[in-house]
Amino acid sequence: MAKNLILWLVIAVILLSVFNNLAPTSNVSELDYSDFIEQVRSGQVSEVTISGQTIDGRTGSGTPFKVVRPEVLDMKLLDDLYNNNVRIKAKEPEKQSIWTQLLVASFPILLILFIFMFFMRQMQGGAGGGKGGPMSFGKSKAKLLSEDQIKTNFSDVAGVDEAKEDVHELVEFLRDPSRFQRLGGRIPRGVLMVGPPGTGKTLLAKAIAGEAKVPFFSISGSDFVEMFVGVGASRVRDMFEQAKKQSPCIIFIDEIDAVGRHRGGGWGGGNDEREQTLNQLLVEMDGFEGNEGVIVIAATNRADVLDKALLRPGRFDRQVYVSLPDIRGREKILQVHVRKVPVDDNVDLRVVARGTPGFSGADLANLVNEAALFAARADKRLVTMEEFEKARDKIMMGAERRSMVMSEAEKEMTAYHEAGHAIVGYHMPEHDPVHKVTIIPRGGALGVTQYLPEDDKHSHSRRYLLGRIASAYGGRIAEDMVGGADAVSTGASSDIEQATNIARNMVTRWGLSDVMGPVLYGEEDSQMPGSGNKTYSGRTSREIDEEIRKILDDCYKTAEGLLDENRDVLEAMKDALMEYETIDADQVKDLMERRKVRAPRDWQDSDFGGGSSAGDSSDADRSESEPEAKDDKPLDSGSVDPAK
Question: How far is CA 628 from CA 59, 148, 491, 624, 632, in A?
């Protein structure tokens, strides 16, 4: 609407400019009144036309002129005109209509009002979706998809079999409501889908509508909230009124935590608007007026921040957890995404699924797309297993930066660093197997050691976590052993952070410390960061720090001992990395068993040319040797160190 008004305004300005340019321009000279009187008395004026205070005339030679007479009427003027034989004409002055006068008088006010409404609509992102006019702030912005527009069904959703079983009942109800109503059953009014980002919550909701063949209203939680208090509540009412007319139907609210957070968390401003919107949503879902045949499906990855009234029976009384897929689920998801991609017969999707633990459905879709892009760059007609492996490495470890200039000394120290990680990780019990070691810069790292679990893991033992800490210190210890304490670089910064976070969680959260016991030690008050308001005493804090330090020191000594025993392997792995730049699990096994290292399957001298060119690095400090691992990552399903 605003764009149309601006367009018409521009057209009007252009037309006015054209008319002004096309209007005839007169070369009428203007005379002073005194000069006019002298010309009349000297007989130079032949005729005049009087219209109010304006006098238009012609001289004896036919030259036109114009005069503005004084407001006070000069009574001698007519005598002078008569005495000098001037032809006199009178013309009634033009009068503007009352409507023209009102328009001229109100134009500035209308212009200011238009500018105000235009900027208000811009701040609200086009309230009303451009369908309800400039005053339609309270209209719903939900997009309606009819049953014919939705082509998604359950066959397009893979890897979430349990979630599909939970929502299959909704499809049966929407198809045949009387089947449940005969026995007095009531279908859940709302279903809340909870799960990590990218697991397919939105896709599953659309598949429900596609299977049931019912209208589907889609809206985001942030679309309700505006700068005016009460607009969000009005939009909720309007959305449910539209849904009742389309009943039976589905309303899908994505990212509902934007409007459904705990009430009472703030004062004034947008918080009042958000709480009123939430209150209206609660009433519409389960109030005095029923919404029979309208099922609300919401999605969020922050169910812990939702208001309790939203989760009670009668509203969102059923929660469906859409989790990260396991190896079988990942294989099914890959099968869905490769339907439109020509893949080679050598592609084994089960192998790809095994190599992508912790990947969500969105990650796997991105993996297939990256593999197709790699094949397109190589002018291949089919996507092979090689492209899938390159795509996986790019996603998990970052894109290769072969153009990055590194000196030979820095490359050698990076090789020692990554070899230290690999050797310690190889010998630690229950540690994930070493999958690949590279000194090719990837992402923000100068080198990467990738571990890949043999199976999906949902919990981790104390032995596994201690192995993770020891392997994290392997790189720093290798640098110390080769060049001494002064040669240790900043490359171990993320390793130290990762090890410290694991040790702290072992002591304060997971109860894996013999000294501190199975007790949860809380953190600082989240409402007042830095306030130091802890749930334990200062003495306990010192004991926690001492226990964390003891765990780290023990793991450091363990890793140091392993590298001392395998110093020859450290040197051999360094040489292999300097020659090949990347070694895989088979080559690592050769080195650990002290055999001659086999060349990589796809390695050729011409491909690498002996490594990167020597020269000064543009980044003097090695800020990372492994991508950062977050605090909670050791407990994540299918955790991959260090990539995921």
Answer: 96, 46, 12, 8, 12
